[in-house]
Design goal:
The structure holds 2 protein chains of 2 kinds. Chain A is mostly beta strands. Chain A has strands at about 5, 10-15, 20-25, 30-35, 45-50, 55, 65-70, 75-80, 90-95, 105, 110-114. In chain A, β9 and β10 form a beta hairpin. Chain A starts with a strand and ends with a strand. Chain B is mostly beta strands. Chain B contains no helices and 12 strands. Chain B has strands at about 1-5, 10-15, 20, 25, 30-40, 45-50, 55-60, 65-70, 75-80, 85-95, 105, 110-114. In chain B, the strands form 3 sheets. In chain B, strands 2, 5, 6, 10, 11 and 12 form a 6-stranded mixed β-sheet that branches. A 4-stranded antiparallel β-sheet of chain B has the order 3-9-8-7, with no helix packed on it. In chain B, about 35% of the residues are buried. Classes of the chains: A mainly beta, B mainly beta. The interface of A and B includes residues 45, 93 and 104 of A.
């Protein structure tokens, strides 16, 4: 399978703990996006990378959130000092650069903060 | 900035009946338009997209959508639905600038009844 893969699929953590999620995009895709989806809502943009450069961050991405994409391949999203409000599905997507190129989504990581 | 409104959160319809899922958007810039489908426990999958040209766009699984610039709408239609079409449907837009992240609506749950 050469789609977008995310790991883990589910994560339960205690409030205040740090968590890290991984996304492996489709190999030839140079753009990588992170979104967050809460129950009953559509995905909300968090941040995106073109190759290894993080080019835009949403105001939703507080200082507790950090994302990296070393070497322009896989990406990690870390949440420090998790809060109950961080409970959500975290989605990763990748695409080629041209305008209107399809974004391919992973199945997401469901985070539950207890 | 863009925003997307999906007017119906839930649409029940009987099998083999036609269906229309409504989507309106607002944007200060030109946009690309998308419909994604999300089946339970699966990632978002692109149904169709409008980039330019003909305002009637055909997608996978027999779906089509029509871009109406004057009404800022991009409604999704299918002439005859199947049980397997039961899923969450998301309308999304992206600006034609450099980032091109997607802004999603809140989704419409389509339930096809036997």
């Amino acid at each position: 399978d050469t789609g977008v893969s995310q790991d883990p699929r589910h994560k339960i953590t205690k409030r205040g703990q740090n968590v890290t999620f991984r996304c492996d995009p489709i190999s030839e895709h140079n753009r990588l996006y992170w979104y967050r989806q809460t129950l009953g809502q559509g995905p909300e943009f968090l941040t995106y990378f073109q190759n290894e450069a993080q080019l835009e961050k949403s105001r939703l991405l507080s200082d507790r959130f950090s994302a990296e994409r070393p070497k322009g391949s896989f990406s990690t999203l870390e949440i420090q000092r998790t809060e109950q409000g961080d409970s959500a599905m975290y989605l990763c997507a990748s695409s080629l650069a041209p305008a209107g190129a399809e974004a391919f989504f992973g199945q997401g990581t469901r985070l539950t903060v207890v | 900035a863009q925003s997307v409104t999906q007017l119906d959160s839930q649409v029940p319809v009987f099998e083999e009946a036609p269906v229309e899922l409504r989507c309106n958007y607002s944007s200060s810039v030109s946009v690309y338009l998308f419909w994604y489908v999300q089946y339970p426990n699966q990632g978002l999958q692109l149904l169709l997209k409008y980039l330019s040209g003909s305002t009637l766009v055909k997608g996978i699984n027999g779906f089509e959508a029509e871009f109406n610039k004057s009404q800022t709408s991009f409604h999704l239609r299918k002439p005859s639905v199947h049980i397997s079409d039961t899923a969450e449907y998301f309308c999304a837009v992206s600006g034609k600038g450099s980032a091109r992240q997607l802004t999603f609506g809140s989704g419409t749950q389509l339930t096809v009844l036997p």
